Structure to design on (197 residues):
């Protein structure tokens, strides 16, 4: 099981080689260095905000959202941060029904998932309490995002290999959350009509 070391480690912690985008990523707790074949002009390094599931259907063309869905279902290798000093490299993907985010490997296979309808917010950048525990400069903010889910607003804190991968997940999750919200509103209106014909 791949695992990331402690703050004191200065060795290579994880290495992702994406031949299609010609991106090699080497990360340590003290430094994140990226080598791109082309400069990344898509992301503002100062951008960091929490996003709720609204307006995404108007903001993004359908073809773009469909590409995001497809990429999410194919899956992405990301670092899953935890409360301590260790992080784990896991493979995250959207299930075939687009109802859950799952990851592997996991000792608790059935629990290694988060349902889309339980997600309350998607926070872009290093906003969560977990991210704040790591040294400044440990991660590129464009590669970081957090999901807040459940009644107790637990967080799933992730670091992707590239900013583009993070944006794909953020856009896709917002779209799915907006769909859940629309369905909830429709169901509520239907119940109201049934109660007061």
């Amino acid at each position: 099981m791949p695992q990331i070391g402690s703050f004191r480690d200065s060795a290579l912690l994880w290495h992702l080689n994406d031949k299609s985008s010609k991106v090699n990523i080497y990360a340590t707790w003290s430094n994140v260095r990226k080598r791109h074949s082309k400069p990344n002009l898509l992301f503002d390094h100062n951008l960091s905000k929490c996003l709720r599931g609204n307006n995404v259907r108007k903001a993004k063309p359908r073809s773009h959202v469909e590409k995001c869905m497809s990429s999410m279902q194919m899956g992405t290798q990301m670092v899953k941060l935890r409360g301590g000093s260790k992080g784990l490299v896991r493979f995250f993907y959207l299930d075939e029904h687009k109802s859950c985010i799952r990851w592997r490997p996991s000792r608790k296979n059935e629990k290694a998932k988060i349902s889309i309808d339980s997600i309350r917010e998607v926070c872009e950048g290093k906003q969560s309490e977990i991210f704040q525990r790591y040294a400044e400069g440990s991660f590129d903010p464009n590669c970081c995002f957090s999901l807040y889910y459940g009644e107790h607003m637990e967080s799933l804190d992730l670091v992707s290999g590239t900013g583009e991968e993070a944006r794909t997940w953020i856009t896709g999750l917002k779209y799915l959350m907006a769909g859940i919200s629309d369905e909830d509103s429709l169901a509520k209106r239907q119940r109201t009509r049934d109660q007061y014909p």
Remarks:
- The longest strand covers residues 87-94.
- The radius of gyration is 18 Å.
- The domain at 14-195 is CATH 2.30.29.30 (PH-domain like).
